[in-house]
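Recap quiz, item 2
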Amino acid sequence: MPERATAHTRRDLLRLTGAAALGAALAGPLAGCASEEDSGPGGPTAGDDSGKPVETFTEPSKKLSGDLKILLWSHFVPSHDTWFDTFVKDWGSKVGVNVQVDHVDQAQITTRIASEIQAGQGHDLIQFIAPLSQFEPSVLDMKDVTEEANKRWGQQLELCRLSSFNPATGKFFAYAPGWVPDPGNFRKSLWEPVGFPNGPSTWDELLQGGAEIKKSKGVQMGLGMSQEIDSNMVLRALMWSFGASIQDENSKVVINSPETVAAVEFMTKLFKQTMTNEVFSWNAASNNQGLVAGKLSYVVNSISAYRTAQGTNPDVAEDTLFVPALRGPKGAHAAQHVLYNWIVPKHAANPDAAKEFLLHYTANFASATYASKLYDFCAWDKLTPKRADWLANDPFGSKPADKLKVLTNAVEWSSNIGYPGPSNTAVGEVFNTFIIPNMFARAARGEVSPQQAVADAEKQINPIFAKWRAQGLVAG
Amino acid sequence: MSAVREAEVARTPVRLPAARRRFADREGTLAWLFLMPSVVYILVLVGVPFVLAIGFALSDVTAGDPSYDYVGLRNFRRIFDDPVFWRSLGNTFIFTGVSMVLIVVLGKVLANIMIANFKGKWIVRFLVLLPWTTPVTLSSIAWLWMLDSIYSPIDWVLRQVGLLGKPGDLLGSGSNMYWLGEPGLAMASVITVHVWRLTPLAAVIMMAGLMAIPRDLEEAARVDGAGYWRRMFEVTIPLVLPVAAVAALFGTIFTFTDMAVVDVLTNGGPNNATQVLTSWAFFRGIDGGDVGQGAAIALFLFPILLAAAIAILRAVRRMEVG
């Protein structure tokens, strides 16, 4: 072999290896920086903590011991996690349970649950922000916890019950102590000049005002039609307000209806007149980014984007107001933004401690609401007696202070994702395979007619329902 | 050490205990012993999951119910009726095919640059290798920001140079390109990120091939009056072709089996325009809860990957013979 080749090979190998190692060494810290900087929305702290709820403690019904491993999401409002971690440790030290808490990104949780169930080991208690009906066969029935909570604090909200109970099997596949509303967020400075100082109240007004704003100011609206969670929520809200739904109350597929076609036709018009192709690349952060940057006139989102803006762009925050679900031809509906589901897998080593902790956590839900800056709402109204006062006079610095008052009766216009039926396994798979956003997107882009888009969606949805029905997890 | 001393050492027999000597002399046993870690690794981390995937594909196992019931080919029949599956299969071939061609061509160009002598060569080599050494999810997130619908710096540059944003501009009057919102652009974006990530690997493989070409062959061609392009196409490329094939096939396998880029950039959208087999298997199997159907979709990767693996081995064999 020639001299040149041999010499190059050895030295090059060493140098390339060195360069690769250096690159990898650099990549690690860079990754760390990226995650540290992304602390998520925070917003202001309460100026006066005198209204902060006092935590309560009730002795468990039986003697507890051992370890309790909890897995839950990294909350969109980070102050919640700071509170939660201390809260759960305090409880553990009082009842003699060694608690370990793992927070992970919400997008990782279902994967993690699936792998733990296949492995038959893992966490004792797991929380997610949407119904976990697909794991029903491998989790404990939470009927006892739910009934105990009902006994202590009155009837659970129907919205939460429908998102944790399977009428086909009679099993509570999860315990649902809380939820988060999904109001409309609008920019007052943009909507006032077009004749809607209090924002739109109907879908028609949204079209009228949004089109005028886009025409006159060049600012678009942000209602996603993409393969992600927020698009799933807002498009269901539109369907329900037009009298359409994926299933009826008996879990029968009814999507192919004139009402669904009308909703798709409306969205096509709304897209053309008020939005840009940005909505087809929507992701879970798009609402927050667009609103905080002042680039969107209207979004449908929880208050987390607003809380972020309070910290990073106070002018936009001050300019942002909220409206309840928009009224359509058949009513005013919004999907829940988040619906907390807590499950105890059958393999859990300490189910008693898990269930006792859930009751303790629920009893102190007012603290969760406060720590999350009014993001989390309780499934038992009795447990957050001050919530209406907080919303009417925001302790976290809203201007005007009653900006969030519109959320006081949010439960009246909020529905579970399976509405008017339960949030069953088939509804979950339809949700996770993004059939509804794609149905709307195909028509909005002009790829197919609204009728065809709806018919194609039905073709995808029917086998999913049939499959889970055959497994006994869906009624009908 | 002098040559005489080396010869003495070589002649001196090593005194090992009889049992050890017998063991050390048994080449067949030693061969298996040395191979065993690789065999165990492959069996545990490749063989077992593969058999498990076949088993799942023929079952009704779900994410919430690991109990096994044999259902024959039902999962396969269902995925054949699913239009998204066929779209994902087509997308997988498009991504892989286009990526492979670009990876090989750009890898060759980069390899030529990396073996050339110029000032700052090592900085260039370092920069070229960075995409390969950066974790794929991290680099995909960086690209997600680059291709953002509102804040894309690429769009900003296009606006600054007058290609975008005003009536009559080459790329349109809109303020943004919406890279991940247009089906065609989203596909191009995913391919670009794959190519950006895998080209350094191809470049390093081809650099090794280029450096192995005897210099006298090129000098002979030069003496015979061959110009740069003629030497390139009639000497260099034929000689690096087996190595280029290896680079292409590695690129194929890495592209075919990757779902991180799609997952981070588009989640398979818009409207499944960038959905690939791996991502669709994940959405169906894990997020959707139907592990059996997810496994059936993922198994479609196997025949193609098997063909790719055979091609790699044959290419390597040709290189050895050559």
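The first helix of chain A runs from residue 3 to 37.
The radius of gyration of chain A is 24 Å.
End of item.
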